[in-house]
Amino acid sequence: MGQLTTSSDRHSSTRDTTGTPVPGFEITSPTRHQGADMWRVARDSGTLDLNTSYAYLLMARDFAETSRVALQDGEVVGFVLGYRRPLDPDCLFIWQIAVDSSMRGRQVAAQMLDALVSDLSGVRTLETTITEDNAASQRLFASFAERHGAAHRVEPLIEEADFPDPGHGAELLHLIGELNSGS
Question: Coil, helix or strand for 26?
Answer without folding.
Answer: strand
